[in-house]
Amino acid sequence: MTTKKTTKPAAKPYTATAAHIKLAKTCGEALNTAGSAKARADQSAAKLHKVGAVVGAKGKCPLAIAFIDARFPGGKNAKGEKVSPGTVDTTLGEFRKAVKSGKGYDENSGRATGKAKKKGAKAGSGNILISIGKAAKPDDAADKLLKGFNALKAANDGLAGLAAFLIDAIDDAKAKKFNPLAK
Questions:
Q1: What span, in angstroms and rounded, lies between the C-alpha atoms of 163 and 146?
Q2: Distances, alpha carbon 81 to alpha carbons 75, 78, 170, in Å
Q3: Could you give the CA distance from residue 84 to residue 92 in angstroms, rounded to a whole number?
Q4: What is the pTM of this model?
Q5: Rounded to whole angstroms, how far apart are CA atoms 175 and 111?
Q6: Residue 64 contacts by C-beta under 8 Å, 6 or more apart in sequence?
Q7: What three-state secondary structure class fits 76?
Q8: What is the pLDDT of residues 29-58, one digit of tens each?
Q9: Three-state secondary structure call for residue 59
């Protein structure tokens, strides 16, 4: 059985129109008002999705600028408090997702499902993660492993011996230029 490869025609580049910018602004403003704010924001995002709108970079895309200016007038939230750049990025990300998917806008979607991105040392789960890309060079991979095993050694006395052994093994492999037959 053979399968046919189908390709989609290239999407036309998107250009924000005045009407689309107004919808982005409505979405941002709706979130600052009581009542049917979420419904208005959802409708605006759905309309933008329907016309194929693409929300670009903060400060460069007219839709992103209109949304952020309306959502945080003067750089402040509905309580009049200054918002952080991280909050702006997160909020814009949720708007971008809503427009791309056509589904409802929800600033708390990450928090509600426990999928919010964690930043900084305090937010960690206590696990030490080592991430090495498939195309990493041996020296880069060894450095990442050393960093991870040193963190393990410092964090867990019970595993300090194992971590020290692994650190020594990596140092030995680096000295031999990753050639196990070298002396």
A1: 9
A2: 8, 7, 50
A3: 12
A4: 0.45
A5: 46
A6: 24, 55, 56, 57, 58, 92, 95, 96
A7: strand
A8: 776 665 566 777 788 888 888 888 888 887
A9: coil
